[in-house]
Structure to design on (183 residues):
């Protein structure tokens, strides 16, 4: 592939690839960087590219894969950041509110408190609360397991949240609302 053909491909496909990449990643700068990576790849691997094949399909396949890899990487980084924030919050909580040297994570402390509170709840309310917030089941799954309507599950969960709010200390309830209630 000579420079003239490469420039022609660049001019013809760059705007369309950039729009396509932007549609996938939602960030203009990242889309531009990814498209530039595609053309760099094409230039470096020009000897391996069969010019009789559909170059348009090849370019769009490469940009799609680069975009998906970018999104996977971004997802992993965000998940790591959230885990790091949770751990730092636990450390700060331990430093601020505990007078012992033994480190118990907020999650362990919260689970112990939730189990204590569930024991105080009416039976059906406690079962629904445990299934939702400890086991992570969906409302429909809980309704089927308990053989009650989804409306009753919602009522039990609302009552359980009210009981938890009154029985958990404010720091643990805040932790519960941020890290469990939005899952």
């Amino acid at each position: 592939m000579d420079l003239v053909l490469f420039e022609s491909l660049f001019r013809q496909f760059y705007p369309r690839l950039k729009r396509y990449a932007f549609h996938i990643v939602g960030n203009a700068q990242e889309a531009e960087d990814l498209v530039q990576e595609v053309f760099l790849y094409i230039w470096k691997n020009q000897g391996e590219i069969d010019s009789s094949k559909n170059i348009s399909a090849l370019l769009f396949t490469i940009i799609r894969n680069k975009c998906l890899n970018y999104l996977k990487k971004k997802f992993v980084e965000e998940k790591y950041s959230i885990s790091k924030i949770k751990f730092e919050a636990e450390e700060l909580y331990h430093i601020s509110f505990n007078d012992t040297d033994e480190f118990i994570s907020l999650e362990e402390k919260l689970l112990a408190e939730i189990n204590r509170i569930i024991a105080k709840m009416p039976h059906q309310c406690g079962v629904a609360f445990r299934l939702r917030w400890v086991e992570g089941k969906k409302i429909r799954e809980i309704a089927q397991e308990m053989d009650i309507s989804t409306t009753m599950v919602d009522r039990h969960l609302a009552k359980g949240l009210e009981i938890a709010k009154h029985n958990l200390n404010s720091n643990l309830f805040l932790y519960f609302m941020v890290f469990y209630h939005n899952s």
